[in-house]
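Tip: read the tokens left to right.
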């Protein structure tokens, strides 16, 4: 990953390929942002005027590259738009800084070193700039013979931060740990599904567990059969690559709370016998994004040494059609003992999650949060940048919504309407895996709720929209796997450690 350092030098004095400064969209044209003073001075104070001449406005996401003036060591100045300037006496918001740093880092792909001189009012701002730069610099090049100069920016030096101040150091270290894990989740999501089956995914987790001193248990297909995990087995049955349930635990010495994170890990979702039509399966390697997010969040909690116990449950299977696959009409006996009539084999995520939710409930955690690319209906409802939150506790749902916003992730609270439950009534089994088409995302949430242990606080994040970016990159978000929900889960663990939630 991109290296990051805090530097006390002036933006103009550092040797680098480029120096990044900010510009705001003022009422009377572009306004040079704090941090750019030295660079602006080298332009004889004419940076804003030059930008205006070039047609730059300072709008969010705008990137302008200029030849550096005499007196600036780097040959190029990258000016990134920050949008409207904050009100008098206020500082730039963290998400604005993250997105601007990300856009600048993307514009510098292939470069060796860049100096970031963006507005750094406090340690939190420095952390946001660091996070945005490290996330924006991400590139997935593992399967390309030559990175054709598009590899990630190799080194970022932040100026304007205080390297000897503990708060700044902590913020930078947090950003480095968090971005590395978000990027690790992205790598897993982007990995082609012919190379990442449940078994390989489990091996990746085992390797990371060893490195970070985490406890890991992997249930293979034999152990799953012995344990009666009918949901996970039923989904994995059609594939030549058998399923796994992975438990990854981080235990803190001074923890008073225990969080369980449960991730949907369908390494490829063809739909199974209810096969998806062409046009709906090209991106379905992303169907393990929930499991990738859970994995990344547990490792980050460990790296940060948070005072909270976190258990990650990864429900891994490949959903394929074959002579051994589950058929529409089959009844599965789940880990909880409930029976499920499978009416549509493409509604597989809820089946693997159900078993993992029941298993996670046995340990009586203070809360369970599951993360899943669960329904196309949620994408229709909220679009491709916002995840839906459902929960059996309104306060917890609200806390997650707020925490996500602080972490820089867009989400929206969704209901679990009781009247939709009867649509899943089955004439053969206890419940069917499908209900009414309308409100399909909520129906899926209601299904999951049935498998959460009595009295346990639970929330469900449907990340089907934001998990995989099919459009162009923006801010610090690349094309492809985004690492959606990792930052929210980590922020929740931090709050649980601090005792501000649950
Ligand atoms: N993995 C899909 C949901 C999905 C859709 C994820 C788009 C990412 C982008 C899920 O397994 C699925 O196929 N859901 C069905 C459920 C239906 C059959 C009840 C859906 O949403 O169509
Ligand atoms: Mn499906
Ligand atoms: Zn799926």
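Filled-in amino acids:
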């Amino acid at each position: 990953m991109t290296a990051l350092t805090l530097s006390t030098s002036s933006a103009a004095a550092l040797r680098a390929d480029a120096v990044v400064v900010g510009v705001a969209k003022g009422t009377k044209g572009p306004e040079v942002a704090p941090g750019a003073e030295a660079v602006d001075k080298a332009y004889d104070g004419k940076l804003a005027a030059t930008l205006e001449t070039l047609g730059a406005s300072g709008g969010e996401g705008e990137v302008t590259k200029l030849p550096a003036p005499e007196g600036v060591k780097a040959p190029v100045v990258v000016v990134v738009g920050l949008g409207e300037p904050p009100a008098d006496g206020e500082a730039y918001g963290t998400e604005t800084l993250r997105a601007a740093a990300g856009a600048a880092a993307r514009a510098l792909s292939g470069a060796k070193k860049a100096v970031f001189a963006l507005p750094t009012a406090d340690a939190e701002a420095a952390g946001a700039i660091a996070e945005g730069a490290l996330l924006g610099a991400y590139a997935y090049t593992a399967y390309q013979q030559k990175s054709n100069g598009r590899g990630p920016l190799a080194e970022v030096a932040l100026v304007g931060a205080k390297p000897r101040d503990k708060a700044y150091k902590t913020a930078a270290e947090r950003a480095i740990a968090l971005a590395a894990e978000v990027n690790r989740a992205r790598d897993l999501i982007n990995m082609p599904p012919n190379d990442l089956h449940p078994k390989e995914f489990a091996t990746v987790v085992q390797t990371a567990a060893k490195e970070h001193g985490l406890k890991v248990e992997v249930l293979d297909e034999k152990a799953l059969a012995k344990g009666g995990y009918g949901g996970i087995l039923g989904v994995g049955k059609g594939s030549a690559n058998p399923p796994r349930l992975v438990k990854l635990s981080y235990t803190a010495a001074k923890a008073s709370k225990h969080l369980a994170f449960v991730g949907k890990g369908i390494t490829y979702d063809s739909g199974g016998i209810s096969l998806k039509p062409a046009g709906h399966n090209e991106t379905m390697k992303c169907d393990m994004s929930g499991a990738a997010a859970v994995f990344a969040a547990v490792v980050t909690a460990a790296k940060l040494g948070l005072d909270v116990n976190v258990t990650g449950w990864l429900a891994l299977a490949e959903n394929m059609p074959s002579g051994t696959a589950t058929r529409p009409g089959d009844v599965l006996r789940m880990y909880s003992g409930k029976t499920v009539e499978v009416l549509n084999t493409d509604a597989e995520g809820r089946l693997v999650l159900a078993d993992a939710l029941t298993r996670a409930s046995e340990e009586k955690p203070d809360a369970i949060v599951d993360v899943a690319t669960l329904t196309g209906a949620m994408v229709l409802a909220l679009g491709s940048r916002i995840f839906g939150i459902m929960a059996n506790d309104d306060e917890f749902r609200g806390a997650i919504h707020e925490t996500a916003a602080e972490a820089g992730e867009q989400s929206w609270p969704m209901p679990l309407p009781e009247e939709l439950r009867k649509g899943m009534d089955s004439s053969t089994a206890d419940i069917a895996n499908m209900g009414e088409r309308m409100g399909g995302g909520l129906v899926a949430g209601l299904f999951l709720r049935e498998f959460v242990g009595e009295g346990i606080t639970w929330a469900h994040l449907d990340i089907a929209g934001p998990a995989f970016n099919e459009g162009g990159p923006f801010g610090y978000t690349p094309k492809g796997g985004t690492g959606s929900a990792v930052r929210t889960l980590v922020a929740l663990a931090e709050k649980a450690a601090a005792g501000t939630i649950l």
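Residues 3-160 form a domain with the Leucine Aminopeptidase, subunit E; domain 1 fold (CATH 3.40.220.10). The chain has two domains: 3-160, 183-498.
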